[in-house]
Amino acid sequence: MRISILDQSPISSNQSAQDALYESMNLAQAGEKFGYTRYWIAEHHDLPGLACPAPEIMLGFIGAHTSKIRIGSGATLLPHYKPYKVAETFNLLATLFPNRIDIGIGRAPGGSAEATNALSDNFLQQVYKMPDLLDDLLHFLHHDFPENHEFAKVTASPVPPVPPETWLLGTSRKSAALAAKNGLAYAFGQFMSEENGAEIIQQYMDAFESKKTGQLPQALLTVSTVCAETSEKAEEVALSWLIWQLQAEKGKRQLVPSIEEAKKYELTDQEKEKLHILKQNMIIGNPQEVGAALHRLRTKYETEELMILTITHSPQERINSYRLIAEEVL
């Protein structure tokens, strides 16, 4: 089994945004040391508690402080941008860090309606054009527009020795179908979906077309996980993330609370029910429990790679969670 890291660069209640971003770099270094396959960092806009609006900038920083782990965006939100600029940016990263760069593509806004309007024009129209945007991006990355195309003579410089590996990220059948049609690797975000991910990944595998990229189908599953030395400690550490999620759903997203702050949060009956649902979509436990759960997911989804999202108040507890998981399953 391969395991990888998804990082949202969370800001804890005792941190600045700078602290959180440096902890993201520390996490990537730790992941490399522990044997994780890849490290992806997400894109969010004007969301309290999340520090990274520009994965492409963080990847330059992280790439300079690591040497072999694959690094990428999870995701670059393509409807906000021109495909040519995205191709230039990731070709530059792939030139600096050969055969290490992934470009994960998503279609979500990544923030509020107001932030979306400030960032780009006609976002919804661009979402509808996502298949065309993705097609242009792939042509720019592989420099293979048809001769009569308006961009046939345009190069997304610099051209790296190995192109970035392109992934499509999603939580629906539509995203799976788009990835399959374009011959792309597919990452299913189980941590933020109530859909039947196993069926969606199977749909992707069955519909995969290799003619555009020549690649074989490749899928990974992203799951929210907290691991500690004991089950009781893991439950305690996970409470920060759970309460933070409840606050976000009420439109009151704050910085990630400490365990003590989370314990003081007074839950309504409705929130207690929601907390139970959130926990059912997570893996929380000691190394043996988490390892067994990850192996069950691998079997159920028939995928060789699992990507783990872990948010804790303490950066040390986050790194410790990833360490314990790696020691158990690798």
From TrEMBL:
One GO cellular component term: cytosol
GO molecular function, one term: oxidoreductase activity, acting on paired donors, with incorporation or reduction of molecular oxygen
Boundaries of every Luciferase-like domain copy: 1-298
Lineage top rank: taxon: Bacteria
Pfam family name, one: Bac_luciferase
Entry-linked CDD domains: Flavin_utilizing_monoxygenases
Similarity section: To bacterial alkanal monooxygenase alpha and beta chains.
Protein name: Luciferase
